[in-house]
Every structure is written in structure tokens, then in C-alpha cells.
Amino acid sequence: MQKTFIFGHKKPDTDSVMSAIGLSYLKNQLGDYTEPRILGNVNKETKYALNYFGLKEPEYLNDVKLQIKDVNYHKKFLIKDTDSIYDGYQMMLKEGVTGIPVVKKKNEFLGLITIKDLSHMVVNVNFEELYTSYENIMHVLKGEEVLRFDSEVVGNIMVAAYRSTTFINTVPLTKDNILIVGDRHSVIEYAVESGVKLLILSGDAEIKEKHIEIARKNKVNIIRTPYDSYHITRLLPLTNYIKTMIRSYNPTKFEETEFIDTVLDINNKLKHTNYPVVNKKNQCLGLLRITDLNEKYPKNVILVDHNEKLQSVEGLDEANILEIFDHHNLGSITTNAPINFRNMAVGSTCTIVYTLFLERGVEISKEIAGALLSGILSDTLILKSPTATPRDVEAVNALSYLAGVDYQTYGMDMLKAGTSLDGMSKEDVLYNDFKLYTVNEKTFAIGQFFTMNFDEMKKELDGYIATLDEVAEANNYNFIALYVTDIIKNGSYVIFNTKGQDVVDVCYGSENIPEGYFVENCVSRKKHVVPLIMEVFEN
Predict the structure, then answer these.
(1) Which pTM was predicted?
(2) Burial class (CB in 10 A: 0-12, 13-18, 19+), 210
(3) Which of 36, 110, 135, 167 is the most buried (most CB within 10 A)?
């Protein structure tokens, strides 16, 4: 079963993290194979909630781009360097490919052999030399072992083609000779007495016992084969170790984690057909044919707490989106096929996940109840936000009972943990809870940070403005703002980039609104901020 990744937006808040954890738990209870992930660092508030309920922080997901491992390439298609050329050819023939990776011990990649290399060997290579194993010769020639003294056979191939007398009188034999001969006993006797490296008996030729004894004394290897001399001379060079054919020990190869678009870019220049696939230790995993890229298996994903492409993971277009669960306005994500899209007008995605538990009749554990409760309390500001609905209230009451906490006390402690500025840079504050939006091909960004003491941030207001200006310039944002929400005062202080003055003025109906301006009853980015800015850009 293929794994499905469940994740929220790029700048994870408590709702996105906890809804991913809760939904993954539910899916797995129902028999699916899912894993919650995050697309960025979790904030202090979320860490507090995770630690409080003993939950493991989800692993980081960098992208869902297509990789070689998502392609049906020829896995485990390789050959050992001491296997025969013949075996390599037969493997390529059977698999219908034109290349095969060669490996050493522990599958360490050595080189690549192709059909072109075979053609080169047939035309140009000296067929008289043999460097192989006794076993390879036996296997290729369908031979019978008569005598074996050496596991490895190195020497020069000869055929007893002359008359016996002529051969014995004119052809000197040495210990480096590999002689092919039929039932010519005088030649056989001459060969074993000369101590040749290997004697190959063609046509299942008989050998006299006395000649076997001489061969045993002189340590002459003997193999008997049913093939005639002609076929033996054609097949014997193919018994050579396949490593003897390697012409390039450093061909272009790819790790299994390489992106498909990178492979295509490189192939557009090289125009090769076959590429070895290796791991980080240079161990060969198989062979990728460029045509294999037609059969790929995109990563399965489920999105929670967002449906904007800019807010989602890199490579989303290359993934298979199975479902989306969200409580925001409809965004820019499109799919190639119909999917399950659960969009509800509630204050938190965790409320939707809680509803799914009820609908599926799955029991909620204490830890998961705590996770879902934390997400709802965070997004609804302990049910004080105008985004909170009766469904959220119902969920909070039920989940706080299952989690064994007083939601108001726990919620305030959690929010306080998230408002601390200790160890945070201005960029950290901005990106603590940060979202991007697009309207009419224009992009704006809104960060939100909760505090109970804005005075501390006000002392460094110029620094925050400078940070917003830098981020806007670097990313070509048309507008960027940081809304610092005061939970006690039930409003937000707005800090914006210098070039965004007109946008803020139009939003709040005044001229030259100052930096750090307090907007009463502004606590929800979704209801109180984003609609106003979208209207400005739409008009």
C-alpha cells in the first residue's frame, strides 16, 4: 500500500499541525497508510501543545516532486562483474532493455554495459583471449566437469583444426593455452602432457583414462560439452567476465531520490537510453530506461487547513491530491480528477476532523483529543473569535472532557506559551503564522502574532517595518503586513511595508494610518483582514 502524506500549509500553526496528526490517526484506524508531515518549523504554541499531550512532532516534508523512486524503473536489474557476457546479453534480451549495470561485491556500482558495447566487442575485440571462471564456461557451454583445478581460467583460445600429426609437429602448446578438440586422442595426449590450462572436448568426445591421469598429474582442467567446435569458438568468448567489456567506469547515473525534471534536463543534452540508479553509498539499485518515465506513481497527499497553491508544498502539481479538508475560502488549487473536498464554515480544521471521527464511529484517544482541542482553541482564541461556531463549542466541550483538561485554563496557558518573544528574531515573529494570497495575479502576505504586551514590540517598530520592506522586495509581494493580535484587548496592531500605505488607508478608510495602528475587534485574519485586502486588490 502506498503511503499518503497529510500536511497543512507552509507556515504551520497549531490547527494545521494538529489536524494533520488527528486525520492521519483516523485514516490509519480505518485501514489506510498515512503519515502526518509539516512544511516548516512549528511555533512555540504548537510545541507546547505537542509536549503537553506527549505527541511526536511530525517530520518535515520538503517537497512532493516526482523522483526516480516514484517511477517503475527496472529495480534490482544488474549483473555481477564476474558473471559472463553471455548472461548479461540474455538478461538484457529477457528484460527487453539495451543496457545493464555491472556491480562488484555488495552491489557497488562498477560500470554500464550496453548492446552497443556488445556490438563493438563482436567487431573489434580479440576473440583469442579468455579471462573468466570455470563455472562460466560450464554454464555457457552446457558443459560437464571432467577435471577442475582452477576456479578462474586465463589463457589463449586455440582450436585443433589441423591434421593430428601436423598439429602435434607444428603447434607448440603451453600452460596458457585453452584447447578445443574432438575425439582425437593423439592431440588430447599431446595437450595433457603439455599441461595446457584447459582442455575443452567438443561433441561429448570421450577421453581415455590414461589421459585423465596425465591431466590430473599436470593439473589440466577438462570440460566436456555437446557443442561442436564451431559453436564452441563462437560461445567461448562470451564466457568472459562481463567486467572485461566495461568501456566507461563513470557513466551518468542517478540516485533514486533524484527529481524527474532533473533527469529529463540532463537527458535532453546526453540523449542516452539507459541510466544506472544508485543510492548514496553508490550501491546499484537497478536501471532506468528513459521510456520508464512514462510509468510513474505520484506521491499521494491529503491537504488540511489550506487550499491555496502558494501555501502548499513544493511540487504539488506533480502529486496525487486525494482529499482536502479546510475551513478557508476557496483558493487556487486544481486537480485532474474529482476528489473529496470537505470545506466547512467552522473556526478550525480540527473541528472538521473531530466531525469525521463522529461520522466514522472511531474512538478518540486522550492524546488525539488533546491535539484536536489545541487546534480549535488556537484558531478560535479559546472560542472568543467571531469565527467560532456552535460546532466548535460542541467539539471543545467533548474534546476537553476526553483530554482531561479545563479548556479555558489550558487554552490560556497554550496561547501564553506562543506569545513569548524570547529568542525570536523579527523574521521569526513574522513567519510564526504566515500565509500568502493571490488576487488578480497579485500576491500579498499576512503574518499574525498573538501577544499580551504590544509595548515590547512597539519599541522596535522601525525594525519590524524594515523587515517587512525587505521581505516584500525580495519576494516581489505587492503588500505585506504583520497583525499583532492582543487577546485581552480583542484587537490587532497592524504593521505594514512602506509601499503598502495606500492599501492600509483604503482598508480602514483614513489617510496616512500610522504604523502600529490598533484595529478594534480585529482578531481573525480570515474574517477581519483577508477580505478587506482582497477587496482592495480586486478593485
Answers:
(1) 0.74
(2) exposed
(3) 36
